[in-house]
């Protein structure tokens, strides 16, 4: 397998879209690494609103609950007492087994192995590169600029603004991390973009959409060094808006929510994923 559909993950020997399984119009190079050992899931962080305490998966103010503009980075902690269970021997073996299974699931959530929308635990561990700032560029500001740029294009098309969605952000972030880990790290899940929607547990009233993009370096330097924050946002919007299939999705009245993630790889290439519902 050398190529696979970006959306459903079906493998192909040649880069010859569209996919005959789901009809998606783009393939991606398939890089599958063998699992050589255990995976250190690392420390999970969330961004907490200083005003109301709501958790956010990334530093993207304002707070989605109260509108406060300051979010504080904190390590995600779980009270071990919440994972304890009393004796249920009097309830029978079936109830004991159910209790053990429940505790196991809670423990996996705490470890980040099972992702929970809004908690930021994606089970992917440390991903190579930078997810917050790179070369002095605030990547959250770039993501916000992408949404603004998309809404400018929608306004030009006479379409109402699209709103940001934390869970769509989580889908975009998860799939982007997988893409970067496939190319620069180890033990990346063999997961398609559609799988990422399922892993996060995102539910859309219509068929969701999404597309990856990568800005690569050129002879004159690393990709992240070519633009300031606003320039990088505008470049990303132009790239997506100019795509014959996905550009129309961005400007569609039927699309009402958007998620974005920008991640800079160790060599300075800029990896982007946009998701839509």
Sum this structure up briefly:
By secondary structure, this protein is α+β, with helices and mostly antiparallel strands. The protein has helices at 93-111, 139-156, 166-184, 193-200, 229-241, 246-250, and strands at 3-5, 11-12, 27-29, 45-49, 55-56, 71-75, 133-134, 137-138, 163-164, 209-215, 257-264, 270-276.
Give the secondary structure arrangement, pairings included.
Blueprint lengths: L2 E3 L5 E2 L14 E3 L15 E5 L5 E2 L14 E5 L17 H19 L21 E2 L2 E2 H18 L6 E2 L1 H19 L8 H8 L8 E7 L13 H13 L4 H5 L6 E8 L5 E7 L1
Parallel strand pairs: 9-11
Antiparallel strand pairs: 1-2, 1-3, 4-5, 4-6, 7-8, 10-12, 11-12
Helix pairs in contact: 2-5, 3-4
Q: How would you sum up this structure, described in words?
A:
By secondary structure, the protein is of the alpha+beta class. The protein has a domain at 133-276: Pathogenesis-related Protein p14a, CATH 3.40.33.10. It contains six helices and twelve strands. The protein has helices spanning 93-111, 139-156, 166-184, 193-200, 229-241, 246-250; strands spanning 3-5, 11-12, 27-29, 45-49, 55-56, 71-75, 133-134, 137-138, 163-164, 209-215, 257-264, 270-276. Helix 2 packs across helix 5 and helix 3 (166-184) crosses helix 4 (193-200). The protein is globular, with a radius of gyration of 20 Å. The two termini are 30 Å apart. The model is unreliable at 32-42, 78-98 and 105-121 (pLDDT under 50).
């Amino acid at each position: 397998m050398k190529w696979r559909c970006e959306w459903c993950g079906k493998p192909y020997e040649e880069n010859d879209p569209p996919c005959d399984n789901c009809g998606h119009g783009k393939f991606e190079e398939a890089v599958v690494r063998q699992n050589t050992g255990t995976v250190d899931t690392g420390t999970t962080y969330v961004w907490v609103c200083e005003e109301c305490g709501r958790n956010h998966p990334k530093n993207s103010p304002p707070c989605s609950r109260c509108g406060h503009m300051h979010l504080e980075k904190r390590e995600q902690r779980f009270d071990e007492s919440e994972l304890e269970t009393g004796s249920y021997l009097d309830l029978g073996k079936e109830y004991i087994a159910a209790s053990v299974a429940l505790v196991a699931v809670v423990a996996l959530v705490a470890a980040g192995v099972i992702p929970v929308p809004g908690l930021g635990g994606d089970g992917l561990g440390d991903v190579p590169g930078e997810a917050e700032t790179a070369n002095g560029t605030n990547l959250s500001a770039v993501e916000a600029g992408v949404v603004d740029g998309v809404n400018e294009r929608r306004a030009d098309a006479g379409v109402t603004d699209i709103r940001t969605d934390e869970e769509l952000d989580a889908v975009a972030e998860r799939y982007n991390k997988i893409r970067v880990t496939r190319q620069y790290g180890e033990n990346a899940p063999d997961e398609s973009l559609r799988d990422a929607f399922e892993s996060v547990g995102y539910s859309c009233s219509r068929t969701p959409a999404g597309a990856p993009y990568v800005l690569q370096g050129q002879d004159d330097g690393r990709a992240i060094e070519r633009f300031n924050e606003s320039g990088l946002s505008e470049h990303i919007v132009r790239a997506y808006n100019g795509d014959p299939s996905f550009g129309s999705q961005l400007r569609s009245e039927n699309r009402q929510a958007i998620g974005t993630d920008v991640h800079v790889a160790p060599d300075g290439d800029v990896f982007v994923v946009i998701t839509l519902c």
